[in-house]
Amino acid sequence: MRKIAVINQKGGSGKTTTVVNTGVVLARTGRKVLLIDLDPQAHTTIHLGLEPPSVNNSAYEVLVGKLPIQQALATTQEKGLFLLPSKIELASAEIELVTTVGREAVLRDALKNLRQHFDYIIVDCPPSLGLLTLNALTAMREVLIPIQAEFFALEGLTKLLQTIEIVQQRINRDLAITGVLITMYDERKNICRDVARKVKEHFKDKVFRTRIRENVRLAEAPSFGKAILDFAPSSHGSEDYQKLTREIIRQEEHV
Amino acid sequence: MRKIAVINQKGGSGKTTTVVNTGVVLARTGRKVLLIDLDPQAHTTIHLGLEPPSVNNSAYEVLVGKLPIQQALATTQEKGLFLLPSKIELASAEIELVTTVGREAVLRDALKNLRQHFDYIIVDCPPSLGLLTLNALTAMREVLIPIQAEFFALEGLTKLLQTIEIVQQRINRDLAITGVLITMYDERKNICRDVARKVKEHFKDKVFRTRIRENVRLAEAPSFGKAILDFAPSSHGSEDYQKLTREIIRQEEHV
Ligand SMILES: Nc1ncnc2c1ncn2[C@@H]1O[C@H](COP(=O)(O)OP(=O)(O)OP(=O)(O)O)[C@@H](O)[C@H]1O
Ligand SMILES: Nc1ncnc2c1ncn2[C@@H]1O[C@H](COP(=O)(O)OP(=O)(O)OP(=O)(O)O)[C@@H](O)[C@H]1O
Ligand SMILES: [Mg+2]
Ligand SMILES: [Mg+2]
After folding, report:
1. Is A151 in contact with B12 (Cβ distance < 8 A)?
2. What is the pLDDT of residue B107?
3. Ligand with the closest atom to the CA of A214
4. Rounded-to-integer distance, Cα A134 and Cα A125, Å
5. Euclidean distance between the first and final Cα of chain B, in Å?
6. pLDDT tens, residue by residue, A161-210
């Protein structure tokens, strides 16, 4: 079972878009996939066509110990794709858990109660390095970092890498960065080529060969509650996420 | 003196770009302007060509009471434009201030020690609704909300408006939303027109007539440490921020 946390505290770097579209493509290949929405904004939940206010059981009830995870799982329109949904109350879990012993490991322990087998668990993280993100880093084994090809994107990376390092040393020795993904890439813009070059220099072979191109269909798909594969199957966005998922699958042999 | 907080907890909505470019245009009209970088990412500081690590005195020292604000002010390449710079240590001010009595009013009190007169004070806020943003909402009288013309941009607004309302009721009766700005707008994309229409329906006459168009020069300017007026004076970005600033100046008679 692969367990991947999609993280970048910089807002708008393409985390939710990556989680939803990679999840759907993986499910289309017949793999069993669980997506976990750990963002109180609930964007993965919305992107998959669910309404957070109408969600009863969510990641919030699971993290504060009110409900075993199995009972909070929701099915999606995609066969083989399940979701642990989110809602705005999840923001208060960060405060409620502050005094809990081993507060970073609450999600890891909750996942032990899963009753069904998944080939992939993928977590969408909020744009911060708080307790919710630390729970993802403790529960998962792999980190996928989406980076928008814009100037400020490189600024925040040091803090992200420091946080991952501390978690590796103190809490989760198995954790490793297995992929860095360039998103919203436009070949015609100097700034995009600049940033992509710097990311490649820094992360070397961890950078996916696939770059997700800037594509308006990817920005439209969430408002229709659909993944790009369904919303615009022949778009660049759909091509790129299928290509990326093939790279992720090829990693199965050696991660 | 106008005091404006530029706020939106959604990352990448155009806060820093708006603060820097509006500040520079205002200074060009002969007004005395103070920009305050309240984001530990220090993007306004970087965008104005300063290096945070080499900054000794910053917003951090001012907020934790180590230094009067006057001594932390930095000059910029622009005559009449001053900056209270930021650095990564500012992130720990949020933690250090948690037990301070009246912790939301620390910036408001620090500003009382300003020794010079400014026509405008504009604060760049971090992408969150934590203590730093609350300090901006307590110290300022006006709120300018940049909204990126993308689907998820509307999702987070409720929480932002709730936070502004609580501050108005409990701490700062004078606070008012005086402008909502559509950023990264592309007339050719349905999603942009949709979002702009919804924002107009919701905020009515608070929405600036000027929309900041998607313009790659605005994305490049920060990497050169320059405002758009200097980096690409005849670009759409430069035109739009000049037009926006004219609207902001016209508000002077009635805010
Ligand atoms: N390749 C792309 N081309 C065009 N638009 C994109 C692309 N990828 C994502 N978007 C859009 O950009 C916005 C930000 O993307 P997304 O929500 O995936 O980022 P995020 O990192 O999850 O944001 P947050 O930090 O707020 O959770 C969304 O409106 C999304 O639809
Ligand atoms: N109109 C525009 N057209 C193209 N790019 C833009 C535009 N406005 C801002 N940008 C770019 O988009 C990115 C996000 O903008 P900016 O940094 O101003 O947002 P922010 O709200 O301050 O982000 P954060 O929440 O991280 O502080 C930056 O790389 C910026 O250069
Ligand atoms: Mg997201
Ligand atoms: Mg900013």
Report:
1. no
2. 98
3. 1
4. 9
5. 11
6. 999 999 999 999 999 999 999 999 999 999 999 999 999 999 999 999 99
Q: Which residues from B are below 8 Å from A41, CB to CB?
A: 152, 155-156
Instruction: Encode pLDDT of B3-30 as tens digits.
Output: 999 999 999 999 999 999 999 999 999 9
Minimum distance, in Å, between the CA of residue B224 and any CA atom of chain A: 10
d(CA A95, CA B74): 37
A chain contacts of residue B13, beta-carbon cutoff 8 Å = 11-12
Which is nearest to A135 in space by CA: A36, A58, A47? A36
Whether pLDDT at B52 is above 90: no
**What pLDDT is recorded for position B254?**
86
- Count CB neighbours of A47 within 10 A: 27
d(C-alpha A130, C-alpha B114), whole Å: 34
DSSP helix/strand/coil, B150:
coil
The DSSP secondary structure of chain A, one letter per residue, reads -EEEEE--SSTTSSHHHHHHHHHHHHHHTT--EEEEE--TT-HHHHHTT--GGG--S-HHHHHTTSS-HHHH-EE-SSTTEEEE---TTHHHHHHHTTTSTTGGGHHHHHHTT--S--SEEEEEPPSS-SHHHHHHHHH-SEEEEEEESSGGGGTTHHHHHHHHHHHHHHT-TT-EEEEEEEESB-TT-HHHHHHHHHHHHHHGGGB-S---B--HHHHHGGGGT--HHHH-TTSHHHHHHHHHHHHHHHGGGT-
Chain A CA closest to residue B148: A12
Q: Establish whether residue B17 lines the binding site of ligand 2, counting it when its CB lies within 6 angstroms of any ligand atom.
A: yes
Nearest C-alpha of chain B: how many angstroms from A193?
11
Helix (H, G, I), strand (E, B) or coil at B178: strand
Residues in A touching B159 (Cβ below 8 Å): 88
Distance between CA atoms of A25 and A28, rounded to whole angstroms? 5
Q: What is the CA radius of gyration of chain A?
A: 17
- The answer to whether B36 and B124 are in contact (CB under 8 A) is yes
Q: Which residues of A74-83 are buried (b: 16+ CB within 10 A; e: fewer)?
A: bebebebbbb
